[in-house]
User: Fold this.
Amino acid sequence: MRPTRKFVSTAVAAMLVAGGLSFGYSAPAQAAPRFKQMNSCGTTAKAGFARCMAVVRAKVSSGDVTALAASPSGLSPANLQSAYALPSSTAGSGQTIAIVDAYNDPTAEADLAVYRSYYGLSACTTANGCFKKVSQTGSTTSLPATDGGWAEEISLDIDMVSAVCPNCKILLVEANSSSFANLGTAVNEAAALGANAISNSYGSSSDARDSTYGSYYNHPGIAVTASSGDSGYGAAYPASSHYVTAVGGTTLTAASGTTRGWTETAWSSAGSGCSSYNTVLTGQASFSTGCSKRAEADVSAVADPATGVSVYDSTAYNGYSGWLTFGGTSASSPIIAAVYGLAGNAASIDNNYPYTHSTYLNDVTSGSNGSCSTTQWCNARSGWDGPTGLGTPNGVTAF
Assistant:
């Protein structure tokens, strides 16, 4: 019998386990954090709505939480390109990566300019045709209300696309709210506007049916990615959809003594799950997922805030602005969408493609997001596992 729900946080899960309530799932033992993690959009979403999966990192100093805002301290574009052996300087031209989020980030383009300038990336602006921001109906002037938490998410998303595929164009589609009706409308708009890949860094607090929302994410010829979550085991939508590439999360650490120069383990909060409703991917039949229906994740990338990515966001939220360090599978989803952009194959493949090209991925074989009744749902291993899927990019051949 599989666990019935994801935990709200590892701390809450630990308290439940300590009290004898495991529900078939137990959180991994963790040392006291060197920093505080804050979910940009809270930890739950009501039925029919989603929350963003961005997790901002803040250091703890003398008992006070202070933002790491003065200068970048997380992973840079060069770090990500090195870790995943990406042809970022030569590939991606002519590709458009769409970012779908809720609400408006009024400083998105200005913040993107700061990020790209700092890291020596070419300008990506409305004026030069590289960047475009629209509402869920395609308007460039009638935009949603501003929300600071979702603005953090937007900055994270567009910075990760820039880091991985600086030659790609960026289309930001802002939904009127975080309801699936509005977010789904925004996904359809992104597809209609010609996106080659669409990243969705958000999810529900429980599984949902493709028969209810699947039409929003079913876009053959477009790579649609979705964050697997940041609360450990428990299927979340749209990552549990049959139509998307579900993206899990890792802890990425520089390792100069290795051939690759980096090591990865499963992030302790990476989302994983088995859908109760949605059809299994045909590509999963060759792998022992332990799920009779759709299993998540498919692939993964860095998501641990402890080894997080640098992001610039000037729309202040809870007193935080400037250079921040982020994690969450909100980072890994746009990374993978941008890798699809580098590969340039989305028109002729589907989300089963990584399963038939898994040898071209970095297989993540250690780490855990807890303890499940079926080991691979929560523990990294050789081949497929829930937290990291088939692994992380090693070039673009698997995409």
